[in-house]
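Severity: low
Component: inverse-folding endpoint
Summary: output formatting inconsistent between runs
Steps to reproduce: submit the following C-alpha cells with default settings.
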C-alpha cells in the first residue's frame, strides 16, 4: 500500500509537478492500494478529533472548528464534509482564477470570488486575500 499524506495535485504556481496526489492517483490507476490521509479525507479529521479529545478539548460541534487553506478541493471541501467552518486563502493555488498574484496580498474582488465559487457545490465560510502568520 501507498500512504499519501498530502493529496494535493497542484502546487502553488500551477505547475504540473509530480505532486503526492498525482502519484497516488497514478498508483491507484495501476491497481495499487492507496491510503489517503490528508485533507479532504476523513482520517486526518479523525486524528485531529482524537488529539483534541486527549487535550481535554473535544470537538462537540463543527461550529467550534475552522479550517484554513488555499485549496477548494482539499481544504475547503474537507471542512465542508466534516461540517466545519472554513477560510479560503485566495492568493494560493487559485490566485490566477481569482485575478490575484500569488502571495501578494492584493485586494480580493468580491465579484471575482462569487464567480469562482459558482463552479463548486460547497463553499467556504469566509475568504481572505492572504494568510499571514
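Observed output (run 2 of 3):
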Amino acid at each position: 500500500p501507498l500512504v499519501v499524506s498530502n493529496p494535493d495535485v497542484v502546487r502553488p504556481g500551477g505547475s504540473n509537478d509530480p505532486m503526492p496526489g498525482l502519484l497516488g492517483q497514478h498508483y491507484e490507476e495501476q491497481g495499487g492500494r492507496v491510503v489517503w490521509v490528508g485533507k479532504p479525507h476523513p482520517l486526518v479529521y479523525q486524528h485531529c478529533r482524537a488529539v483534541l479529545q486527549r487535550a481535554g478539548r473535544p470537538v462537540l460541534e463543527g461550529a467550534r472548528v475552522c479550517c484554513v487553506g488555499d485549496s477548494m478541493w482539499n481544504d475547503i471541501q474537507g471542512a465542508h464534509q466534516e461540517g466545519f467552518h472554513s477560510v479560503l486563502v485566495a492568493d494560493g493555488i487559485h490566485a490566477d482564477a481569482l485575478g490575484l498574484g500569488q502571495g501578494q496580498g492584493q485586494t480580493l474582488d468580491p465579484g471575482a470570488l462569487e464567480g469562482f465559487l459558482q463552479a463548486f457545490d460547497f463553499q467556504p465560510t469566509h475568504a481572505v486575500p492572504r494568510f499571514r502568520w
